[in-house]
Amino acid sequence: MDSIPAWFPGVTLNYAENMLFSPSPSDPSVQSKKGKEDDKIAVTEVREGCTEIRDVTWRDLRTKVARLSNAMRAHGVSKGDRVAVVASHSVDTLTVFLAVTAVGGIFSSSSTDMGTKGVLDRLLQIRPVWVFVDDSALYNGKIVDLRTKMGEISKGMENVKEFRGLVSVPRFSDVKDISSLPKTITLDEYLRKGKGDASLRFERIGFMDPFLIVYSSGTTGIPKCIVHSVGGVLISRQKEARLHSDLGPDTVYLQYTTTGWIMYLTAVSVLQHGARAVLYDGSPFQPDLTTFVRLLGDQRVTDLGISPRYLQTLASANPPVLPRQITDLSALRSVSSTGMVLSDSLFEWFYDSAFPPSVHLCNISGGTDIAACFGLQNPLTPVYVGGCQGPGLGIKLEVYYQLIEGGPGVKGQAVPVGEPGELVATAAFPNQPVCFWGDDSGKKYFDAYFGRFDDVWTHGDFISIHPVTGGVYFLGRADGVLNPSGVRFGSAEIYSVIETHFGEEIQDSICVGQRRPKDTDESVVLFLLMKPGKKFSQSLVKSVQDRIAKECSKRHVPKYVFETPEIPVSRFRCRLGG
Question: What's the whole-number mean pLDDT along residues 399-426?
């Protein structure tokens, strides 16, 4: 499977059409409004701290998308053109996404907290015709004027011949003056070219045609531009939402995310199933730890998506924040957690103290590369502590020996069930990315996924499959596996011990391997971030090392343990680098 098969040739479809309409029960190629009736609420927009909450009906959303997509047509945007945003998690951003894809264009998004260089590292590769940028951003109680960043982006794009300009999107009622910014117009000016045309038209494109560009982390150079097909994403979302999650028109879905994370796609794609999407923009910890929790009860959220770091923040607060004691969670059916490994102690805290026992805790893991999950929930099987319930349907997930060097023509070998190794997919699946943008020869794409083992997709995760439950355990990145004295294990095993037994003293930790050219063996190094008021000491170090030896093995014990003033985490509270 070291090439991309042509899935469903001859089938044409449109992402925005599938979001804004349902297929007719009598003919799936014909639009209907079943579950998406005009007066039903499609989207609820929530600003940080729940200071502003706004509902948008399906009628209003369709009208907004129609006017913007027709303005884009009037500005010459057509199939295959890239349109990007640097924007918040808002109705306006969603409107741009759906308008771009309605005309057959390719959408790409970056969050407003990303630095100008990071934004340009993306934009200069994909060469968009237009870039929509919020004029302001709100996070952690602070409003940031983005006009300086807009000017820097415009200047950075001046040699891109396809680039026609920036569109300034007002984020607050006090619209910023952008008259001094080069090649920049307001959203109102942009819309005027569409002359108020509110007729909805969709350019249906081939199943394998691109509609979305997302990005790798870029930790080893400029980010890879991963191109996803409209059909691959739609069929994968249908599988995960309907079969794995049982989403439908009665669902109220809140995924905490920014537009710079693949979970943004999850947050808005629930519209495909007639669900109401709650778009929360800002910090979930403002003005306190309980406000976001109360929102779940107030909005009757049925399905919540967050990260382990969010749960850990609630659990380690003084006193702990227990959602089931704060608000009415009777509507809540599931909580999904992703972004990093969910520790065993958080599984237990979730059910013992924090959430109703009827709520389905869904530990999921996949990636930007496939716009989907390799491991996720299953509504038909029990939830066990640790790991994901099972593999995603339609993906032939296997575990290969990681010690095999790999390379052209090298065949991988499956490990016995229960042993750790490298995550691979041994058969093709529809939501494989179609290419990397700008990788004309396909070499970067091949090397990224197929260069390690012959004829299989290698994802780069270190996992194991439980021999009894079938659960999928993500132990860390395969290239970050710790290997002291030949004993291989993932950093997640260390984090689980820290979070379970030292949550009162240690706020966070990061575990890495060190092997210098002169070293004969790898050393495991553990960095501890202490909670305010708690002191790092050698007695604590010994307690941590002893507990790791008892819970894991003596070979797992870090050789060095240091205090650190800070642990790098992303905006959505995911640990970076470990």
Answer: 91
